[in-house]
Design brief:
heterodimer, A: mainly alpha, MetI-like fold, about 80% helix, flat, B: six-stranded mixed sheet, four-stranded antiparallel sheet, 9 helices, 10 strands
Chain lengths: ~280, ~250
Amino acid sequence: MSSPDTTYRPSDIQLGRIAYRRGKAIRSVLLAALSTAVLGTLLGVLVTGAPGWDRVKQSFFDPHIAREFVPEILQGLWFNIRLVVVCALCALALGLLVAVLRTLRGPIFFPVRALATVYTYSFRGLPLIIVIYLFAFGVPGLRLQGTPSVTVLGGAAIVVTYGAYLAEVFRAGIESVHPSQVAAARSLGLSYRQSMRFVVLPQAVRRVAPPLLNDTVALQKDVGLISLAGPIDAIRAAQIATAQTANFTPYVVAGVLFVLLALPLILVTDFVTLRAARRQNAGT
Amino acid sequence: MLLTCTGVRKTFGDAVVLDGLDLSVDEHEVVALIGASGSGKSTLLRCVNLLEEISDGQITLDGEDITDPRADADRVRQKIGLVFQSYNLFPHMTVLDNITLAPTKVHKRPVAEARERAMEWLSRVGLADKSGSYPDRLSGGQQQRVAIVRALVNSPRLLLLDEVTSALDPELVGEVLTMIRELKTEGMTMVLATHEMGFARQVADRVAFLDRGRVLEQGPPAQVLGDPVEARTRQFLARIIEAGRL
């Protein structure tokens, strides 16, 4: 890059262009503000003007009830947060493990590959609710010694279901690394396993970081389904509060809290995606 | 003979790329493979490095049959360096890590020693200041020189160069060719597939013209490039001259 030329003065033509573009930019901003205001007003009038609005407002947006039950729902949310962290880490580890198992070569590993494939095929199709029921109610029914608590079983159901999705994301990442990278690694004398570990996997994981994070956001809200198995999480707490007050406001409170909980991770996902896109463009 | 290829055949489905090819390379010899696209130059290099399995014939290195399915491919490749047309550096590693990966992981050298050796090589080719950079920050010529160093630090018996200047801007070709010329003076055995006829003439001890998966004609560069015997060689060179590349 050369140092800025202090003697440079834009020509009259360039000054004219700058002025024109500035005027255009100001008009654009005004137009965007106007159309947003019109649409917002229209939506507001439509909802608040609806014949049932007063009833809906009473049973879904009651500020007194909201304030009263926020502490209990927050307590439930703390349970969700801990569960999310543990489940996400376990699901990521399981997904990576299964994806790597599917790349193993050689006849000895046939059963491992087959098992990993059957797992990803079946658990991506199986609804999470059914898996939670099977784990949380089915496993204790075996009456084995040392059966873990319902929370652990429910968490395991979430991990096993999401692990199948994440395994496919990791596998897509592994397959997206160009074969010439493996050829380069092998030509240096690295074994197949070394090539995977030092060349393919690091690139694959970097490349699929955005979709992995996106699946983690989905996992974050799906841990709420564990309430079906009994533990008192935010959704369960809201359900109890709703039963007490005959008012749906606690659900709305829980919903808002879930959104707030997801926001940081969503922002991180966007940031990572943006950075990945920038890196990719810089490479060419 | 360091390398011998005898009756090497390679097919991809119905396409016959190598059709009973014979070629031998002596220690310290530099052989340039020339020929049209699809004549089998790159495929031959990939077969020698066991990246492709041959369909028939035999390849020996140091008298050992490396195409025997019982041969340890990883150990064979440790004796052969391969440099690719598109460099194939590892984008997630710095220049230094690219170079020290095989010495530390394959040859089990101590990291400090491998780094020291890599830095010596980088200084030699004028890239010491790039050791901490990622490949995407380097020009094509710089990347290709790093790729050559990456192959050389393993002290290969044989260096295979697959059209290493084809992807470079014209003004960057010279720096890579200079490096190869220096390797020749040090006695490195090399087989290079190339479109640079002028360079082949300068650096090669022998030029082999590949046509339809065979070596149709080979000999000293002056003879093959200046006074070829075969009609197809003459046709090929005439097209090169027409394109202004000779």
